[in-house]
Amino acid sequence: MMKPIWALCTVMLATAPAVAATPRDILTNAAFSARDKAGALAQIAQAEAGANAVLARTPGDREAQLTKAMAIGYRAKLNRSRADAIDARDRFDALAAAAPRDPEAQAIVAGWHIDAVSQLGGFVAGAALGAKKATGLAALDRSVALGGGRALFPGIAALLRLSLDGSDPKARGLAEAAVKGSAPTAIDRVMQRSATAVLVPIRAGDARAAQALAKQLLPFGRVAR
Asked: How far is 110 from 93, CA to CA, in rounded Å?
């Protein structure tokens, strides 16, 4: 069964892989810059290998655990792999349980559930994967509440909500909060640009265009498959 993960899922430093790119840098560059499936999968594999190398030295490294889980989730999305999707879900849940006030972990759990529902529909996503819209939206709200005013969290929340419903009543406020939020990292700035873009169809009252654009602006939304 297929499982398109958000993976937001997902999500972090959207910088082109520079000289000493970390596994997370590579993964995020793939999520927001890749345009073809083969290239995206190659970058995902590279990021996962880097995370595995860190975990071989330091098994408890949370950043490496998170990067590995995200890589599995992204691969699940591109390959429509149920096994990888469930593996990623279990890893995300464990990371969120270990640090319940980590807004990033909450956003990634939210992305897993919402992306599955958006791509497969509520019934299939629930039956095949255990994905639930309500669980995703609750985690999404927690991520925004815990996010400390960073642009990332309301930005990804706006996109994920719009991916489900182009007329979501909370999306506009979230996108506007992202535009005004702090942007300490590259991914925050990516989310600010995405929020600015999606506000155009929102303000024009074009729900269909808002939903289509939000889906494109989420990780791997522009990869031809």
From this structure: 10
Q: Return the closest-CA partner of residue 39 out of 17, 12, 8, 67.
A: 17
Q: Are 152 and 130 in contact (CB under 8 A)?
A: no
State how far the Cα of 138 lies from the Cα of 112, in Å rounded to an integer.
Answer: 12
Q: Name the strand (E) or helix (H) holding 139.
A: helix 133-146
Average per-residue pLDDT for the chain: 91
| Cβ count within 10 A of residue 73 | 30
Judge residue 53's burial from the number of C-beta atoms within 10 Å of its C-beta, 0-12 exposed, 13-18 middle, 19 or more buried: exposed
Residue partners of 127: CB distance under 8 A and separation at least 6? none
CA pair distance 133, 86, nearest whole angstrom? 16
Distance CA 82, CA 181 (A): 36
**Of how many residues is the chain composed?**
225
83-118: pLDDT as tens digits: 999 999 999 999 999 999 999 999 999 999 999 999
DSSP-derived secondary structure for 97-131? HH-TT-HHHHHHHHHHHHHHHHHH-HHHHHHHH--
Positions in the chain short of pLDDT 70:
1-20, 225
Q: What is the model's pLDDT at position 225?
A: 64
Rounded-to-integer distance, Cα 143 and Cα 15, Å? 22
- Residue whose C-alpha is closest to residue 115's, from 147, 74, 152: 74
CB 221 within 8 A of CB 172: no
